[in-house]
Specification:
The chain is α+β, with helices and mostly antiparallel strands. It contains 16 helices and nine strands. It has helices at residues 8-19, 26-37, 45-54, 56-64, 98-104, 109-116, 153-165, 185-189, 212-222, 226-236, 259-266, 268-280, 298-317, 351-367, 380-394, 396-406; strands at residues 133-139, 145-151, 197-202, 283-288, 291-296, 328-331, 337-338, 341-342, 348-349. The protein has a four-stranded antiparallel sheet with strand order 4-5-3-6. A three-stranded antiparallel sheet has the order 7-8-9. A two-stranded antiparallel ribbon has the order 1-2. Helix 6 (109-116) crosses helix 10 and helix 14 runs parallel beside helix 16. The radius of gyration is 26 Å and the shape is globular.
Length: 412
């Protein structure tokens, strides 16, 4: 039973007050409702109405007592935080009405509705005052395109507050390593070092395939009333036409500060299921955003193909799409690479990537930095600093070699 979820006795008591008497039909109806909703996030109002409309017992009782059943007292209790059991201990701000949310975000109610855009006005017009995002398309190695949706300054500040004061207070799953303090690409790869076989799988359109409805459910699970959860979800999601599915419907925008944390929360259940599946097969499991990795010994190697099928089924059941073209089974004797790093004997940068960066730095010393800025980076020095810093974080010795070359560059 979820924290805050109505009990059979509670439902019967409230329904009796509403209808003016304790009808015999109420307890069986309450039992069916609790059974239908047990273990789930608190249903929406429309879900309750749909249950009553479809329940055969309710239909039969209404037909038998149509002339007697009537509402005697409408119960209008104030909205309250009703978190699921796991969220009861989280130190989240109490926001129990849309007015309280407006005050918390320092917005007028009309501004709150405008930024949440629950009516989808933003994707129906090209007027900048409605459109809250800047858009940029990036090419993928496969030839497909990735849409970067960067929120404009005011919306970005609202999202940053939601991230800092709500989302960052929720403990992540141990298998999740992306966009989390104290975890990194290195901690994602480390559990798979020296393993007999490594399975790599990829989720397709990870952010865009997480729907706005799913995000609103996450906020309801935290305990926020439906009206508040819908507005919080609206602030953290976007829909835009002209880029095809799934961008046309409300989704997590890749580029918003809240999206990585919300994506990890939406993947929490699948992380639990995949971690359990991996344990049963004697394997390790980690996830970095849309990259999934599994590894194990000889027994796991014998079943890895069948295991990958089970993983794909779980992902599909949880609403994620597998990019099957990127699934790789990497045994010892070949380069076992995950997220741009190798894991055969130790976590390391890929040799070809290191050699290319070293050559770029060397040519910067010999020919000048401008001659090597082929992609037109506006801050080429910071770009190279970042790449060298990344190598240093993975392999200190190799990073030191690159740092010595970097320091010889004569910057204009």
């Amino acid at each position: 039973m979820l924290a805050g979820e109505p009990t059979v006795d509670g439902i019967v008591a409230r329904a009796s007050r509403t209808l003016g008497r304790r009808w015999r039909l109420l307890r069986p109806l309450a039992r069916r409702y609790v059974e239908a909703t047990s273990g789930r996030v608190r249903p929406r109002h429309r879900d309750v109405v749909q249950f009553l409309d479809e329940d055969s017992g309710a239909k039969r009782a209404w037909a038998e007592h149509a002339g007697e059943l009537s509402v005697e007292h409408w119960l209008t209790d104030p909205q309250q935080m009703q978190p699921v059991a796991a969220a009861a201990s989280w130190d989240l701000p109490v926001i129990e009405s849309t007015g309280a949310l407006s005050e918390w975000l320092l917005l007028y109610p009309s501004e709150l509705e405008w930024f949440a855009d629950l009516k989808g006005l933003g994707d129906r017009t090209k007027r900048p005052r409605i459109n809250h995002y800047h858009y940029r398309e990036l090419g993928k190695g496969s030839g497909a395109m990735r849409l970067i949706e960067a929120p404009k300054p005011t919306l970005k500040e609202l999202q940053r507050r939601i991230l800092a004061e709500i989302l960052n207070k929720i403990p992540p799953h141990p298998a999740s390593h992306g966009f989390l303090r104290g975890r990194s690409i290195k901690t994602y790869v480390s559990p798979h070092v020296g393993k007999r076989v490594v399975l790599k799988m990829d989720l397709q359109d990870f952010f865009a395939n997480i729907s706005g409805a799913r995000i609103q459910t996450v906020f309801r699970a935290m305990g926020y009333p439906e009206s508040v959860a819908d507005l919080l979800g609206g602030i953290c999601t976007n829909s835009v036409r002209g880029f095809g599915e799934p961008y046309a419907r409300p989704h997590l925008p890749q580029g918003a500060p809240t999206s990585p944390a919300l994506a990890n929360l939406c993947a929490y259940r699948v992380d639990c299921r995949l971690a359990g599946l991996a344990r049963s097969a004697g394997a390790e499991y980690t996830r970095y955003a849309d990259d999934l990795a599994f590894s194990g010994g000889e027994a796991y190697e014998r079943r890895v193909e069948r295991f990958s099928t089970h993983v794909a089924v779980i992902l599909e059941e949880e609403g994620f799409r597998v990019n099957h073209r990127k699934t790789r089974i990497m045994r010892q004797g070949v380069r076992q690479h995950l997220a741009g790093l190798t894991a055969n004997q130790r976590v390391n940068v890929i040799r070809a990537d290191f050699d290319r960066l070293k050559a770029t730095l060397t040519n910067c010393v010999r020919l000048g930095a401008a001659s090597q800025n082929h992609e037109g980076h506006p801050s080429f020095r910071e770009h190279l600093e970042g790449r060298v810093g990344f190598v240093e974080s993975i392999n200190a010795a190799k990073g030191a070699r690159l740092r010595r070359i970097l320091e010889k560059i004569d910057w204009p």
